[in-house]
Amino acid sequence: MSETLKITNPINGKARQAESAGEPDRAPETRHDWTSEEVLDLLSQPLLDLVDQARAVHRRYHSDGAMQLASLLSIKTGACPEDCKYCAQSAHYAKTTGLKRETLLDVDDVLENAKRAKDAGASRFCMGAAWREVKDGQAFDSVLAMVKGVRALGMEACVTLGMLTQAQADRLGEAGLTAYNHNLDTSPEFYGEIVTTRTYQDRLETLARVRKAGIQVCCGGIIGMGETVPDRARLLQTLANLNPHPESVPINALVAVAGTPLADRPPVDALELVRMVAAARIMMPLSRVRLSAGRRELSKEAQILCFLAGANSIFYGDKLLTAANNDAADDLALIAEAGLSVEPPCPKP
Ligand code: SF4
Questions:
Q1: Which residues are catalytic, by number?
Q2: pLDDT at residue 3 above 70?
Q3: Would you kindly state where each structural domain of the chain is located, as residue ranges?
Q4: Pocket test for ligand 1, best of 83, 89, 131 (most atoms within 8 A of CB)
Q5: How many CA atoms lie within 13 A of 94 on its CB side?
Q6: How far apart are CA 343 and CA 64, in angstroms?
Q7: Can you tell me the distance from the alpha carbon of 87 to that of 152, in angstroms, rounded to the nearest whole number?
Q8: Given ligand 1 and candidates 72, 75, 80, which is best to mutate, with the most ligand atoms within 8 Å of its CB?
Q9: CATH superfamily of 59-342
Q10: Averaged pLDDT for residues 12-38
């Protein structure tokens, strides 16, 4: 006979009840041995069957119906030496995108932005710097001060800074960083079509350093870049076979930016995004699945379908790095209309 256990979700620390005869700190559905065929079968089944399964997993592990609001600020914009074909910030496309390079923001400016985000309801503050890798010195010291300041506000702090050494990851961990964002973007096989200035293995190595430093991993991908459905399955397989799973999984639809090599890609069908969200929810039951770039192009109904399929985090605020984002008041109204709640700020460290 199965026993009712009190299980703590390691991500939001909230207790939940679950029927399980297994370990109390592990979701029974948690697996790290997905095959690409299994994931492809999951993604390709009738949409409502897929959503039904995802909904069941979501209700079991996220029964509080809380939506995390994460605000994202570009702390150093443009002139990135990497050549990610979707990115407005790459120096490789600066002539055609016309994006102006900006230097690293002041710590006080960033913390002022974080405070405004918190006052507007965000519980997580994400900071992105358009760097290939972190270089030790004044700029990195400033980022460490930003992390400490955001944590002192009682918010989760996440940064994305490019590749890290182990010593740099350890310093971020010591500063109290909650999570490090480093997306895999797509499948290992398709990756070379999107980025040529680093390898998939480089990404995986930085993720391993982040994990070793005791920092949560935020890692996801983008659809709509010309990849196949098997490529999407391989991305999800790679994410779910990381052990432990990334605590946060951003699912992005390409925002085709004028002047980038992917400017002419057709828009992503919203139901393809729903499928990705649902499969991510099933494969990584405890993770936060974040509906990220491309949400602005979704109708209210498509967003609700993503929430139904297991998305429980959104980027919130007027900007997503250099792209426009949904209106904050509309987001709060949508969350209320869906009967969800907003996740409260975390306790101060
Ligand atoms: S590393 Fe980041 S900022 Fe740089 S080009 Fe790629 S996505 Fe853009």
A1: 80, 84, 87, 126, 158, 218, 290
A2: no
A3: 59-342
A4: 89
A5: 14
A6: 9
A7: 32
A8: 80
A9: Aldolase class I (3.20.20.70)
A10: 59
